[in-house]
Amino acid sequence: MDIIRNEIEQRLLAIVSEYPNSDVKKAMKYSLLAGGKRIRPLLFIQTIRSYGKDYHNYLDIACAIEMIHTYSLIHDDLPGMDNDDMRRGLPTCHKQFGEATAILAGDSLLNEAMNVILQMPLESILKIEVLTILFQASGLRGMIFGQQLDINFENTQATLEELEEIHTHKTGALISASLALGAVVVAKEDVATWQKIGQNIGLAFQIQDDVLDIVGDSELLGKNTGSDITNQKSTYVSLLGLETSQSKIDKLFEEATEALYSLSVNHELFLELMHLVKKRVK
């Protein structure tokens, strides 16, 4: 896994290095290479590898996924959103470069993610399929819709159903898309199953974030804990408590595992990554 993560890091560096020198480029590079877990691109790659296929021809799709994820973090940290000072153990992008440059850096990462895919030596129909899944997941049908719902429920306690809708879109959409994209390039007949697996992992991932915001180590997390309480956000912990939230995480991973075993793939290869996600402390 470390070898693949290093390949992603090196390719991200090569991509961002090609852009014209500017403060925006510096801010993009700062946030993109700040030591993220690379969970989403790894999920994409492990989906491909679980079929015994080589992922290297599709590495730029993994990078595009991470570019979109990083854009969302930059914008999520802004004063008009969560107003966070720390991300991945470093000052957030707007604290380091100013709010205007941070906004432009996020915008650039989103736009350049599309260009990265368009420039790949793939069949045009596959590019269209990839872009459709990726940008539906990151747009108003996915991540942005979830962000808006998250804002709407600041200072207002969401119901369990409303909270699940927030998390499914805000975090789950891009994670689910990462798995669906892996299936699109190697096994289109399995896309729906991988989307289901991704939805479960994505919802569990966000509930983990809710839990870690309460019990996590801020040094390990690389950001201040307790921000959900400060921003008076609705979370699974505030609604259900820590114990029930953890039980929900376990159940979601169990359901994802059951769906995985319905596929004719190398289960252990993907379960290795699922285990790392489930046991994460940051």
Number of domain units: 1
Poorly predicted tracts of residues: none
Number of helices: 15
What's the Cα radius of gyration? 18 Å
Q: Give the rounded overall mean pLDDT.
A: 92
Specify the biggest β-sheet.
2 strands, antiparallel
Instruction: Provide the β-strand percentage band.
Output: under 5%
SSE sequence, one letter per element: HHHHEEHHHHHHHHHHH
SS-based class: mainly alpha
Report the CATH architecture: Orthogonal Bundle
Biggest β-sheet: strands ordered side by side in the sheet: 1-2
CATH domain topology: Farnesyl Diphosphate Synthase
Oligomer: single chain
* Gap between N and C termini: 17 Å
Query: What is the CATH domain class?
Result: Mainly Alpha
CATH superfamily: Farnesyl Diphosphate Synthase
Number of strands: 2
What is the percent of helical residues?
over 70%
Shape: globular
